[in-house]
Design brief:
single chain, mainly alpha, about 0% strand
């Protein structure tokens, strides 16, 4: 008599998800489509919100921070300065928040059927990247208009570094989100802490102000934040103003890799036991 079969998840610290993502890519793309469309179902304006939300926030920042408070934008056109920071920040923060809810949002499904759990956070990341891509096209249209009419912007060869910045931003979002997903599966109040930390992080990242206005004695602390480097280099490539140290970019690359690997390993480790506590 043959031994009974047992289907279980292969868990361990060193299991990387690349092969699993490839094998289950159909499921991945279905989840991406679901996550993307679910955000705009039963809404009056539907997908228009993809464009409207960053535009409204940009106009608010221009009115409050530029017109009333007089915050510098490094001589760059305010709409371009704020819009680029907003869409980068939204992609980062939305991805982390969505990924952190991986186990709580899919608990009923995870309890019934096994599939590679890493697919869910990756689907959140790709859905948010699709939204980011559409908003980035809006920025490019606005950028082209200003490039024709306004001589204050000076695009340069640092545009070639922007794809790397987007890869690092994605890796940073995924790694951080996986760490919090592993923690919030057991400790639900960490989700409240995460929302609070993201609010604080936005104000210590150059989303609504340039790094140049930060006093010199604090700049080294701000540069420890990888978001500072990624946003500043992206702005410099398009607008010609901002910090553009390649040494800082190298530091950001190493830190992002460490966070991403740590997130994947912790997520793998928790995968085998997390369903007992959610």
């Amino acid at each position: 008599m043959s031994a009974p079969w047992e289907i279980n998840a292969r868990s361990g610290w060193l299991r990387m998800p690349i092969r699993e993502l490839s094998l289950h890519r159909d499921l991945l793309f279905r989840l991406v489509r679901k996550d993307f469309l679910a955000s705009y179902q039963q809404t009056i304006l539907g997908p228009v919100w993809i464009f409207l939300q960053p535009l409204l926030v940009t106009l608010t920042y221009i009115a409050v921070f530029k017109s009333i408070l007089g915050v510098s934008t490094d001589s760059s056109p305010s709409p371009l300065f704020y819009l680029l920071g907003i869409i980068c920040w939204n992609y980062f923060s939305d991805s982390i928040l969505n990924i952190s809810f991986t186990y709580t949002s899919y608990a009923s499904i995870f309890n019934k059927v096994y599939f590679s759990r890493i697919i869910v956070p990756c689907s959140y990341l790709l859905a948010n990247f699709a939204r980011f891509g559409i908003q980035f096209l809006l920025f490019l249209l606005l950028f082209t208009g200003f490039l024709i009419m306004d001589r204050r912007i000076h695009p340069n060869l640092f545009l070639l570094w922007i794809p790397l910045c987007l890869v690092l931003l994605s890796g940073l979002s995924l790694g951080t989100g996986l760490i919090f997903a592993s923690l919030t599966a057991k400790y639900r109040d960490i989700q409240n802490l995460l929302s609070f930390l993201l609010r604080i992080l936005m104000f210590v990242s150059p989303v609504i102000y340039p790094l140049s206005i930060v006093p010199d004695r604090f700049k080294s602390l701000f540069l420890l934040n990888p978001l500072t480097i990624l946003i500043e280099i992206t702005r410099y490539g398009f607008l010609g103003s901002g910090d553009h140290s390649l040494i800082s970019l190298g530091y950001c690359s190493i830190l992002t890799l460490l966070i991403l690997v740590s997130g994947i390993l912790l997520f793998n480790r928790r995968d085998g036991i997390v369903m007992d506590v959610i």
